[in-house]
Each structure stands twice: as structure tokens, then as C-alpha cells.
Design goal:
Number of helices: 10
Largest sheet: none
Radius of gyration: 18 Å
Number of strands: 0
Order of helices and strands: HHHHHHHHHH
Low-confidence stretches: none
Mean pLDDT: 87
Distance between the termini: 28 Å
Shape: globular
Helix content: over 70%
Length: 272
């Protein structure tokens, strides 16, 4: 039972809740490795399973700890199999870190109820655009060859998505993927590699903040990290074997989950 007695003070969940969280972490790691968006699974599971007297920052910090290690394992698999361009990756990562920092700093001043409906409309538009362009991203056909053209576009993508991650967050990996595909002409698989490393950067920045304040349930986070790493390892291997067509399908499914979550949040804030 999720509401049963907690295991210990340093692991403040019941046995049933722990099982739920470990399964959720494994599935989230798989989804996150393929296309991003694993937080749509893992974070709600933490909210449900962790006792309500545990402060929210501890839930967010624990989620980031698990996600960081899962993203790290997936990035390692991708980098061994897929070649990346530093002219794209470096400005993407720098932009993502800067954008995430600014977004996190401003998040306390921007009402969430204003942002959620806007993001919902954007995600629906992205989903429809991807659905009705079935050939988009199936082949790796970069639109730009000049280093300067690639670099400034990558930096702009990093800033925009990093800012979103800092100020709101859900589906960050998916936004990285679709912008790299749509703006730069990359295949879904190649876009996922770069998105994964950029997302690793934003996760590390957030984890550092939570860690400095001691807002992490360490044992729970590490236990979930083991399953997240396993899921990430399997997901990255599947993505590199099956290619962009497989990643596109998972991308659309993940967007559908994100749409449901954002729609639920929007309805809840207007009916509460």
C-alpha cells in the first residue's frame, strides 16, 4: 500500500511506494533516453508516493538526482554510437545553461497559471506539425553547413528551451528534439543525441542548487537512479538500433502525455 508505514527516516516511503517509484524510474529512464520527457512519468510518481509532509523541493531534488544519472548513461551510449558536431553542441549546451539559470531566477515572479495554457497550445501545435509531416526528421539532412549559421541557431535553441526548463520544465527534452529537427534539419536520432547532452547540462545545474541546500532524499534518489540508468541504457540502445522512425513514434506518444498533463493542469487551475 502506498500509504503504509514508511521504511525509515532516511527512506520516507512505504514498501509499496518504493516499488512504484522504482518501476516509474525505469520507464522514465527509457522514455527520456529515446526522446526526452521522462519527467512526465517520474515526477508525478514522486508526488503521489512521497508523504505529503515532505517539502516540495525535496521531491524536485530527488527527481533531478535520479534523472541526472539516467541522462548521463544514455548520453554515454549515444556518444559511443553517434557522431556529434561541437559547432552545434557547444553553443547548444552553453545556451541551455544560461537560459536555465535565467528561467529559474525568474520562475518565482511569473505565475504558473499564465504559462501552462500557453505551453499547452505550443505543444499541441508541435504535435500536429509533426503528425502531418510524416517525413520530417526521418533522414538526417542538415540545412546549414557554415559554422556560424549552425552555432547561432544552436545557441538560440539552447537559450529558449533552457529558459523554459528553468521556468516551467515538463517536456524539455522533447522541445530540444523538435527544434533541432525543425530548425536545423537533423534526423530525430541525431537530434536526440544533442538534446540529451543539453538536458544533462540543465539537470546538473538544477541538481547543484538542490544539493547545496540539502534538498534531496539521497537514498531514494540513488535507488531510483539505478533503475533510471538501466532504463536509459536500454532506451538509448533501442533508439540507435531502430533509428529515427522509432524515435519519431516515441516522440509523438510523449507529446500526447505532455498534452494530457498540461490540459489537466490548465483545467484544474481554472476550476479550483
Amino acid at each position: 500500500m502506498l500509504d503504509g508505514p514508511v521504511i525509515a527516516e532516511w527512506l520516507p516511503v512505504s514498501v509499496g511506494a518504493l516499488v512504484l517509484l522504482l518501476v516509474a524510474a525505469g520507464v522514465a529512464g527509457w522514455v527520456d533516453a529515446v526522446v526526452g520527457g521522462g519527467g512526465l512519468i517520474q515526477l508525478p510518481a514522486l508526488v503521489i508516493a512521497v508523504p505529503k509532509d515532505v517539502a516540495t523541493p525535496f521531491i524536485l531534488g530527488t527527481n533531478k538526482l535520479s534523472s541526472f544519472f539516467g541522462t548521463l548513461s544514455a548520453s554515454w551510449v549515444y556518444l559511443r554510437k553517434i557522431r556529434v558536431q561541437l559547432v552545434l553542441l557547444a553553443p547548444l549546451v552553453i545556451g541551455a545553461f544560461a537560459g536555465s539559470t535565467v528561467g529559474a531566477a525568474l520562475s518565482r515572479y511569473v505565475p504558473r497559471e499564465v504559462l501552462t495554457p500557453i505551453v499547452l497550445v505550443a505543444v499541441v501545435a508541435v504535435g500536429l506539425y509533426t503528425l502531418f509531416k510524416p517525413k520530417m526528421g526521418l533522414h538526417h539532412e542538415p540545412r546549414h553547413t557554415a559554422a556560424r549559421a549552425i552555432a547561432w541557431r544552436a545557441a538560440a535553441i539552447g537559450l529558449a528551451v533552457g529558459f523554459y526548463d528553468g521556468i516551467l520544465g515538463p517536456g524539455t527534452g522533447s522541445f530540444f528534439v523538435i527544434l533541432i529537427v525543425g530548425v536545423l534539419g537533423y534526423g530525430f536520432l541525431q537530434a536526440s543525441v544533442n538534446a540529451k547532452i543539453a538536458n544533462l547540462t540543465t539537470n546538473l545545474a538544477a541538481l547543484a542548487v538542490y544539493g547545496v541546500h540539502g534538498e534531496v532524499i539521497l537514498v531514494l534518489g540513488l535507488a531510483m537512479a539505478v533503475l533510471n540508468v538501466t532504463g536509459g541504457f536500454i532506451g538509448a540502445h533501442m533508439a540507435t538500433r531502430r533509428g529515427s522512425g522509432f524515435v519519431r513514434i516515441v516522440f509523438l506518444v510523449t507529446l500526447s502525455l505532455l498534452i494530457v498533463k498540461l490540459a489537466w493542469d490548465t483545467i484544474a487551475q481554472f476550476t479550483s
